[in-house]
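Slide 14.
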Amino acid sequence: MYTPGWAGPGTAPEGDLRVLIGNGTSSNSQPNSNSASVIVYRQASLAGVLAASAPRPGPGLMAITPAQFPPGEYPVGMDIWPADATIAPPTLLVATTAGRLLRFDLGTPAAPLAPAYRVFASSLGGGVNKDKAGVRAGVPYAFVTQAVSSGSGRILQFRAPTGSGSNPPIAAVTAAGVNKPDGLAVTQ
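Slide 15: predicted structure.
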């Protein structure tokens, strides 16, 4: 996720690439443990890779560590949520396997924070997959895909939370053709 206009934690310049690394499945070779994280490749490092065609040895920093995600809850999608009345800087909105949207406040480049989350929306049920944020007429909205049952799904729309408490969807698309939606994009 390339995010111009906001660099996130530390003093990273604008144009960093944030990558969600998830581990939300269990198999014989992979225990069901939360090793999810969000890593950051800094703009200068990416420019060096593009100019020299040499591989990058690793990310510039880990913005969110596995210990900062709730136990038993795995991230499945993320997007940048703009600043609003409840949190001044932009935040990272993360959809999870527990049917929640978590909002990680990373602070600003001038005043980074140890990432902590707030619940943006909860009790969505299983099958939550990807999330996207967008702004229309100056108002931010979040959209979330959800596979509801075999062969069906829905797309949920949310406003910014008004404070503490529930933040139910303001709209849901469940029309024919929304079969297990796996991703979405929002134009601004």
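Speaker note: The first strand starts at residue 17 and ends at 21.
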